Amino acid sequence: xxxxxxxxxDQKLAxxxxxxxEGVMAGAKAAVVATVAAAVPTLASVRxxxxxxxxxxxxxxxxxxxxxxxxxxxxxxxxTVLASARKNSFGASYKADI
Length: 98
Hints:
Strand content: under 5%
Transmembrane segments: 26-46, 58-77
InterPro entries: Enod93 (IPR005050)
Largest sheet: none
Radius of gyration: 21 Å
Organism: Rhynchospora pubera
Helix content: over 70%
Keywords: Membrane, Transmembrane, Transmembrane helix
Protein name: Early nodulin-93
Structural class: mainly alpha
Low-confidence stretches: none
Oligomer: single chain
Distance between the termini: 22 Å
Mean pLDDT: 87
C-alpha cells in the first residue's frame, strides 16, 4: 500500500465537503419546490372537495405536504452527491491515465 500524504487527504476531504454541500443545497431547493407543489393541490382540495374536507384534518394535510418535501430532499440530495462523486472519480482516473 502506497503512502498517503496529508495534502492528498486534505484535498479529498475538501472535495467530499463540497460534494455534500452541493447535495444539501440541491435537496433544499427541491424540497421548497415540492412543498409548494404539494401544498397547493392539498389545500385546494380540502377547500373544494367535501370528502377531503371531512377526512383530511390539519395533521393529515401537514403530513402529506411534509412527506413530499422530505422525499424530494433526500432523492435530489442523494442523486446530486452520487453524480458529483461519479464525476470526480472519473476525472481522477482520467487524470491518472494521462
